[in-house]
Specification:
The complex is a heterodimer of chains A (223) and B (226). By secondary structure, chain A is mainly α. Helix content of chain A is 75%, strand content 0%. Chain A has one domain: MetI-like (MetI-like fold, Orthogonal Bundle). Chain A is built from nine helices and no strands. In chain A, helix 5 crosses helix 7. The longest helix of chain A has 33 residues. The two termini of chain A are 39 Å apart. Chain B is mainly alpha-helical. Classes of the chains: A mainly alpha (223), B mainly alpha (226). Chains A and B meet through helix 3, helix 4, helix 7, helix 8 and helix 9 of A and helix 4, helix 8, helix 9 and helix 10 of B. Chain A: One of its GO terms (biological process) is glycine betaine transport.
Amino acid sequence: MNTLAGAWEWLTDGANWSGEGGIGNRLTQHLYLTGVCLALSCLIALPVALVLGHIGKGGALAVNISNIGRAVPTFAVLVLLLLSPIGGYGSWPTIIALVLFAVPPLLTNAYVGMRGVDRDVVRAARGMGMTGRQLLTGVEIPLALPLILTGVRIAAVQLVATATIAALAGGGGLGRIITAGFNLASTSQVVAGALLVAVFALLVEGLFEAGQRLAPSWARDRG
Amino acid sequence: MTATPDDCLARNEWICGEYLSTRRSILGDAVVQHLQLTVAAVLIGLAIAVPLAVAARRWRWAAGPVLGITTVLYTIPSLAMFSLLLPVYGLSASIVIAGLVFYSLTLLVRNILAGLRAVPEETRQAARGMGYGPVRLLLAVELPLALPAAMAGLRIATVSAVSLVTIGAIVGYGGLGNLIYSGMNTYFKAQVLTASVLCVIIAVAADLLLLLVQRYATPWTRAVGE
């Protein structure tokens, strides 16, 4: 309990909130990193998954890519990128590593969602004379939306959590509080940093949960 | 030694046979530690997950809390998890194992529970009609039928654990992650690439091994599916 008290003391100390290495700055960096990576990975994964799901091809690829993604440690990818020529470009190694990490769940969920759309509904829409584009935007995407959003939510929460790894490679974000605590051998700071990240991750999860509850019933995940 | 030898180590190349031959023992130790941490974590996770899933199946009220708690555990970042356990275990391998156990719990409990729930009610009734007691029903009917789903969870949990062990480098017990970490600090390309590739190989090999075990343990699924 001493550690928790120490962590609380560290968190409530105003001096730890300001400045370059302060909680405020680290939180902003973390939010920025997560946001950029989520946006980029959505831009990459969703169009591919939607098109693949629409034409019904590449299913094995979409499902297997998520298994492969799990086997490759993000930390290893990050360090490999750092030591490669890309390493010289600021936070790009971190962003690329995190995007590579977030794409598989997005891709798999969106694809599964698209394929899960009732075939009878698709045939009915075709029979009504809908073009491919109308079918995609008017029928398939709305019906697949719950699973697509589940993928986005999983990716977002995992990104918040995994963005801490950037700190191991000298990047910014909340992970830096933890690694700095390790270097100072200050358990209370380590625990304080860990609590911050955990709360942040749970907050994002909660936000998505709330968003899903407020959404119209057809956009909710029935699973 | 007077002149620097002009080999791939001196030139700091990504792929380096020299590295493999001179650091064989270091690599071997790292792989062994990696495997030990993974196997210990997955086995402990399994030992905890099976009773939890069975309890959640048996008592409806237990399902909510069990799934809720394991899901919350899963959202805690690995770096944070290992550091949160620091006051409990001190700087030791137990931190990494405990963290990995928590992560594997989510995947294992979910999958085992899904498998148990998928056992058809008729099958259960038939077994009861044949005079099976609750324990025998569980051991001889329900758990075997839940095996395919449980094995799917076990495979995901194992592969994730192999990849997460690397983060254990922060506390000095990261198996191949230690080599990646130190290679990053010394800008040692061959070490980072070799350790990363070995990591992926271990993950893929573990996945294939479990797949084989699954095929062998559930012969009845072979004829129907695929």
